[in-house]
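lol ok so funny story. i was supposed to be doing the assay writeup but got distracted and ended up predicting the structure for this chain instead. priorities right. anyway since i did it might as well share w the group, maybe its usefull for someone
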Amino acid sequence: MSQTIEKKRKESKIEVQTYLDRLIYAIQSESVTINFQKDRNVDQGRNKKYTNRYTMGQLFPDEDEVEALKRELSLLTVEEYIETVKDTRFPKRSDMRVFGKQYSGDDVYIKIRVELVSTMASGNNFIMVMSFHYSEWDFKGSSFPYKKV
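and the output, tada:
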């Protein structure tokens, strides 16, 4: 029996901008942890071109992955937003945001979750990067609700 584990929706432009502002805040904090899923279970049997490991190796071959991700995530814009996803398996976790960006003419699919755990001195901000890989499908203008035409 197939069950839907994700609920997708489009956020308003101001909600997306607020999210991006929080993302930049988390990245710039000295207490940020970035967890990057370099190898994912869903990649087994998938064309390696569409894996996180392959994409990061192609786009940023001589860079520290965490530093490259910090830079690239801090450069995301509202125009690159695609959708917001709620993983119903983990209802207490924050929603994931999906973005699409082009690198040298190739579409890259980016899915992230930001947890601002605490504002206390001992608290950490946590960024989970589930996806940062070449897209298996070409992005269409209609994929981006706030893309300027």
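Strands lie at 6-9, 32-36, 81-87, 96-103, 106-116, 125-134. The chain is about 25% helix and 30% strand.
back to the writeup now i swear
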